[in-house]
TrEMBL record:
Transmembrane segments: none annotated. Keywords: Repeat. PANTHER family: F-BOX ONLY PROTEIN (PTHR22990), F-BOX ONLY PROTEIN 10 (PTHR22990:SF15). Pfam families: Beta_helix (PF13229). The keyword Hydrolase does not apply. This is Right handed beta helix domain-containing protein.
Length: 315
């Protein structure tokens, strides 16, 4: 009976979303309960998807079928106070999934348009929490992105992310990942902690701005900026260098890079980083490590890093 209720909840929301899409937008209000998805819900037009009257709403991904939970296509969508769990029954670290699995096992995939997520939680134990594609804008506030098998948030070529007051933690790869021409991320007052790779990674023509954020206890670097395209595809976690190379840029102000397992900030492959009034402390290797790149450090506190405070070399 409980399973039927989950499916019935899902079908009601899917039907309301379909009606809103046909009418060019509308309100989809979700009552308290658990929703078990059968297939992707596509959102288009001007659509609001929200939990009704402070209700606890949990959306579970289908356990057998490889589909995206929600797909946003050339639309303007608001999501509010909803928990999205993809394969919620298994939060253990899984073997590196195939490219297709990572692409499809995603809570939210954007292919154009604007999505505002407020007070939501995104968990996907086999894939990415939020995938921001070309010509897409994701605005996230007071959210949690955690326990994802791949990146918490991935921004690809031509995509844009603005995130504030959000926790990005315990993800299988990077907390926030940016790559490709025209890709940009603005990160304000966020905690990027305990991710299996970098707190934030900005690669190959990407641009990243960080302010008043904490990047702490990540398994590699707090912030990694690299001008090389090191992934074969947007969803492939295998580090294979290719011939493509292009400058990546990052600016951080009033941020804390603390107790990361490698460097606080690692800048490589003809990239540029500006650090202003940051606290860079207690990282296992260096506070700031620069290789064949440029780093400007202004009024920062660099202390108690295990190898070097600041180290630079040409490769």
């Amino acid at each position: 009976g409980r399973q039927r209720m989950k499916r019935r909840n899902y079908r009601r929301v899917a039907g309301a979303a379909w009606n809103a899409m046909q009418e060019g937008g509308g309100m989809v209000s979700m009552k308290k309960g658990v929703y078990e998805e059968e297939d992707t819900i596509k959102l288009a037009g001007m659509t609001t998807l929200k939990a009704a009257d402070r209700a606890q709403v949990i959306v579970l991904g289908p356990k057998k079928k490889d589909v995206v939970q929600f797909e946003v296509v050339n639309s303007r969508v608001l999501m509010q106070n909803i928990v999205f769990r993809r394969f919620a029954s298994n939060h253990e670290k899984l073997p590196t999934p195939s490219q297709d699995l990572i692409e499809w096992n995603t809570c939210i995939r954007m292919a154009g348009g604007l999505l505002r997520a407020v007070g939501c939680t995104f968990e996907s134990s086999k894939g990415i929490g939020c995938l921001v594609g070309t010509d897409s804008v994701l605005q996230m506030s007071r959210c949690k992105v955690q326990l994802c098998g791949s990146d918490g948030i991935a921004v690809m070529e031509g995509g844009a992310l603005t995130v504030n007051d959000t926790l990005v933690s315990d993800n299988g790869e990077n907390g926030i990942y940016v790559q490709g021409k025209g890709s940009i991320a603005r990160i304000y007052r966020c905690n990027l902690i305990k991710n299996q790779e970098n707190g934030a990674a900005n690669l190959f023509l990407g641009t990243m701005f960080l302010s008043n954020s904490i990047l702490q206890a990540n398994r590699k670097n707090g912030l990694h900026v690299c001008g090389n395209r090191v992934f074969v595809s947007p969803w492939n976690g295998v580090n294979i260098n290719t011939e493509a190379q292009g400058e990546a840029n990052a600016e951080a102000s009033k941020c804390t890079f603390k107790n990361n397992m490698d460097n606080g900030i690692h800048v490589t492959m003809s990239s540029k980083v500006t650090l202003v009034r940051c606290d860079i402390v207690g990282n296992q290797h260096s506070g700031v490590a620069v290789a064949s790149s440029v780093a400007k450090v202004d009024a920062c506190r660099v202390r108690q890093n295990h190898r070097h405070g600041i180290v630079a070399k040409n490769q």
